[in-house]
Amino acid sequence: MIIRLLVIIVLTIVFTPVNSTQGWGFTAHMRINSDAVDTLPAGMKKFFESERNFISEHAVDPDRWKRDDKSELPRHFIDLDMYGTYPFKELPRDYDEAVKKFGAETVNSRGTLPWRIAEYTLNLAEDMKSGKREKIRMTAAALGHYVGDSYSPLHSVENYNGQYTNNYGVHKQFENRMVNAYMDSYEPQLNEAASIKEPLRHAFDIVMRSYKLVLPILESETKARKILTSGQIDSLNDWRAKGIPDYLAILYSDLGEMGWNQMNSASYDLGRYWVSAWELAGKPVLPE
Ligand SMILES: [Zn+2]
Q: Which end of the chain has less neighbouring CB within 10 Å, N or C?
């Protein structure tokens, strides 16, 4: 446990910041991936338990892929609000249908996160069939990243950093600074994961629920920034700037419980996606 904590601390120092548009901070993504192992049924648990450190430490690899691959960025979000109003009926949930209606360029630039989750569920099933440890653990870790992002409310809107509503910098403050400042208070409750019948539909359900949490985040941030000086406001989007405790305390009092619920649900659903992949693969015996 102490070694794992040390690894987390060292990696946090080395790799923060990844960039200004990442989802949950490094610590939250690692935690979501690690906790998901605790939801697994006996038939899968041994493998995932033995790879828990890898799956946790590689939880933000997909954010790093963005540096070399321009097509990676939109796989981490979906700007639902560019498709009208909730429940966004005009957006077909089938990717090919969506492309037929809006064109590939539009659909891809507005973000493809739910489709990425469904794709990676299938990829994981294929990797499990192949029986290759290196492939299974990397795909499982990356799927965890995408599921984590889907539970991050600001990944469901165009106004992902409060840039249109005078909340500039809210992305980092909510997902990273607030979560990191209060991580000691996080106590996930995790049940055993059952498979998901329709992985794509489920991914859309997640982002739709996330979307509904955006407004409370922006409202709380508007309230919290009132106590800041103009210099502090300018620092909110600066990845090198330290957290401002009084400001974060206001965010945490309004949003802490919701944030923990999102992380908790992300771990649980990640377990469910892993189980779904395993079932799709025909429940193979995973490598020893
Ligand atoms: Zn991401």
A: N
